[in-house]
Amino acid sequence: MSKKPRGRLFFANPGPTNIPDSILHAQAHHAVDFMDADFIALYNRCVDGLKRVLRTEQTLFFYTGSGHAAWEASLVNVLSQGDTILIIETGNFSESWGRMAAALGIKVQTVAADWRLGVDVDAVRAALAADTGHVIKAVCAVHNETATGMVLPIQAIRAAIDAAGHPALLLADTISSLGSIDFRFDEWGIDVAVGGSQKGLMLPTGLSFTAVSGKAMEVHKTSTLPKAYFNWTAMLTRPHKSFIGTVPTSFFYGLQEALRMIHDEEGLADVLARHTRLGEAVRRCVNHWSGNNGPQLYCNNPARYSDSVTAVLMPEGFNAEDIRKTALSRFNVSLGGGLSRLGGKVFRIGHLGDLNEPMILGTLSVVEMALKMNGVPHTPGGVDAAIAYLAEAAQGG
Ligand code: PLP
Question: Which atom, in ligand 1's list, is nearest to the CA of 146?
């Protein structure tokens, strides 16, 4: 039996992410009646605080379920049998959302894109302009593609919809961007945002939510896709104006603490700045390694680098799973693997949530050791490049 390395698991996955001790403790709360007045007050404070992270004053619905639940809710509440949606291809997660829509009987049209470069926004505008009959009812956009480490400029997508004079709703997945990368529901004209607990919000997996615009609520009233647990109209009749069944109260003790950390302890602007800083440190490190035909950034579009996750593309002939296995079995560092067609080709470094400089540098050091141990070509010293950058940033440089 192989021995487990000592020390705490260093978790560098792009979700779930590290759960701070204070959130773990807050969430380990005894059962309360979800109709208890104190709990309802706490719940309402959580709704307000989460809306501040989403940058919205509109309606919020929660689901006991992972991000997939909120994905399904976003579709069944605003679409009807025979409707068409336009999926913007970003990677594994845009494909999965599209597959779910198809399974629900929705017709799926896709704006194709190179996963390393990202979509051409003009192609989105053209697809909508070509739809003169307004068959397309919603545009689905994954803000941060967790599989590739690339962001999609949601404002530009909004502008493309408007430029085409198209009435489609804009559905945005903010599962791996919320609380890590700037996201503005109201200002960017988003109609439905899909979020989850286990990434930037630093909570365990299992709570998800949708923010919903007034326009989307209007469309919802006439949507005919079957819905029961996810039905927004039914939710509005419930005491918490959400949750058809028992409210998972412990999540809200955890969420209250997460929101305290985000808003009161660090401040949302500083949370986002920390993600930008740590993301840039990872990229500098990988770019350094890429010399000597080493591993390189999978994202080939600097304007769209993700500040919450970096996918690292292995040189030809080397398997990313070997790096993951070495990091975990020898050093207790958990990295993300390659998803769908990127299996074995990339590993992913999550840099979102409860994370600081030493944690990032520790992870990068272990990856550099694993590259060396597996005989993967690279230019040594990537970690030094990250250190140099972070030291300068810490001095306000
Ligand atoms: N969308 C994105 C961008 C994701 O990263 C994920 C999961 O990682 C999902 C959707 C699916 O969410 P879940 O795994 O919580 O169901």
Answer: 5
